[in-house]
Write a structure and sequence with these properties.
The protein is elongated. Helix 1 runs antiparallel to helix 4 (about 65-85). It has helices at about 20-30, 40-45, 50-60, 65-85, 90-100; strands at about 5-10, 15-20, 85, 105. The protein is built from five helices and four strands. It is an alpha+beta fold. The protein is about 45% helix and about 10% strand. Strands 1-4 form a two-stranded parallel sheet. Strands 2-3 form a two-stranded antiparallel sheet.
Length: about 110
């Protein structure tokens, strides 16, 4: 069978990989001591997808959040392999597409 397209481009974060729990835990860690005691995942989830700096500013009330961003990135890297997982069925779909002859491209770039 021939296809009109030869290459398929996938966004990695949030499409192929479930990074939600990693993101939530990273925010909670970075913001500890800067937000109210009852600050939780329910505060974070509605704003997911917003740039890191903007969220840290919103949640902390600080203008300069570079130290918080560094703290976020450090714990994010530390916890990455524990919390990042492929969404159910993704591996099988990618395998099937590859076996069908498609070139697959995975990107972390944000597209508008």
């Amino acid at each position: 069978m021939t296809y009109k397209y030869e290459t398929i481009l996938f966004d990695l974060d949030g499409t192929i990989l479930d990074t939600n729990e990693l993101i939530i835990r990273s925010y909670l860690h970075a913001l500890k001591g800067y937000v109210a005691e009852d600050f939780s995942r329910e505060h974070i989830i509605p704003h997911m997808g917003t740039p890191l700096t903007e969220q840290l500013q919103r949640f902390s009330g600080l203008e300069d959040v570079e130290a918080l961003a560094q703290k976020y990135r450090e714990i994010n890297l530390e916890l990455h392999d524990e919390y990042v997982k492929a969404f159910d069925g993704v591996n099988e779909v990618l395998k099937n597409l590859h076996e069908a002859g498609f070139k697959l491209v995975l990107s972390q770039q944000k597209f508008a």
